[in-house]
Amino acid sequence: MSVYEAIARRRDVRAEFTGEAPDDATLTRVLAAAHRAPSVGMSQPWDFVVVRDPATRARFAEHVATERAAYAAGLEGERAETFRGIRIEGIRESGLGVVVTHDPDRGGPHVLGRATIDDTGLYSTCLAVQNLWLAATAEGLGVGWVSFYREEHLRELLHIPPRVRPVAWLCVGRVSALHDVPDLERHGWRARRPLDEAIHHERYRSQTCRRAAPPPSPTTDSRPPSAARCRC
Ligand SMILES: Cc1cc2nc3c(=O)[nH]c(=O)nc-3n(C[C@H](O)[C@H](O)[C@H](O)COP(=O)(O)O)c2cc1C
User: Which strands sit side by side in the sheet containing 46-51, from one edge to the other?
Assistant: First the structure.
């Protein structure tokens, strides 16, 4: 699979896990790809905690369900209704979790390139996540990023030291299919911005929305009306 194909096929997966975890060799290849990510000052601030124990995954899933309910309680009207139909995790069904952590002390106090922008450490860990996600896609696996959690809860659950941040719980497993369209777009939560809106020339232009929210045409626009509406 070319890198462009992997980028195009990559999807955040929630409902399509078959329950089959990747075999050890495949998982090692995927983690090796993550470990090859670029990092500020070559600090490599990430670690990967592989969680297979169903009891640990069940405890995490319960916590996530609580946080999902708290988020849902703050929504109103159409947003609340749309959110009700959206899955936000496949923790039990995916077969295993990979928790990607970030150690801000890795590389010592003089990380080359991090002196003026401390966040570059965190950016590096996120790049490891993206490498993992693309490699998993090329292996025919699904990945779902779960962030509906309190960092303290995950620290305690996995014995992560206080200074280390759990950046992502990634559900990883075999899937029945990968959809062409993101779940949130299919459910009418939010659509992809057009590329030309994201590209600026010479200077950053402040954007007032150039899409005047035209009513969706039933013949040319197959997306649900709420997805076609501009929300920027
Ligand atoms: C930092 C981050 C956190 C995310 N957290 C969640 C989450 O908690 N639950 C979920 O279902 N999806 C989560 N996602 C997935 C996004 O919803 C998804 O990437 C987006 O809708 C685009 O879909 P796609 O990844 O299939 O292209 C997260 C993605 C990122 C990058």
Answer: 46-51, 96-102, 165-174, 141-146
Give the ligand 1 atom nearest the CA of 126: 1
> pLDDT tens across 151-207, in order?
999 999 999 999 999 999 999 999 999 999 999 999 999 999 999 999 999 999 886
Q: CA nearest 78: which of 232, 190, 191, 200? A: 190
Q: Could you tell me the distance, in angstroms and rounded to a whole number, from the CA of residue 226 to the centre of ligand 1?
A: 19
Give me ligand 1 centre to Cα 110, in Å. 33
Asked: is 3-180 a CATH 3.10.250.10 domain? The reply is no
d(CA 87, CA 74): 17
E strand or H helix that includes residue 172:
strand 165-174
User: Where along the chain do its domains lie?
Assistant: 3-180
